[in-house]
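If I may wish for something, please walk me through the protein I am sending here so I can picture the backbone:
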Amino acid sequence: MQTAQISSHSRQETLELARRFARMLKGGEIIFLRGPIGAGKTVFVKGVASALGLKSSPTSASFSLMKKYTNKKHHLFHIDLFRLEEGEVFNLGFEEMLEDEKAVILAEWPDPIRQMMPSDRLEMDFILKEGDERVITLKSFGRVSDALLGGICKTANK
């Protein structure tokens, strides 16, 4: 496991960080997003979707649990499990997502699916500070997520 921290001082900085991060995505990546409501998780997902060239802009998936955004090159699965317990998530189609080589999985409030996902994942904890500042703590678990963590840290320093 590797760890790092990145600061964002505005919504625009979070979007730009997500756009730079998205340029590293090839498919097969799993990213867990945690943090309180309003911490910037969905803003980050919007930035990733925009950079991947997806036409629809993600909104909170809280009421639909999972939304899929696609183009010819990418399949973005935005999952929001805010209201669910572990036993309530079995019929959401995770097997299909995991078999999709183009899939990028961004899961907000991911704890109910932790045991269903492969161990290689990047975890991002969004921590609210004063004003619009956020500190994003990153933890990587596995070869793919280690590369993502290293890449996002490099792009955050530009």
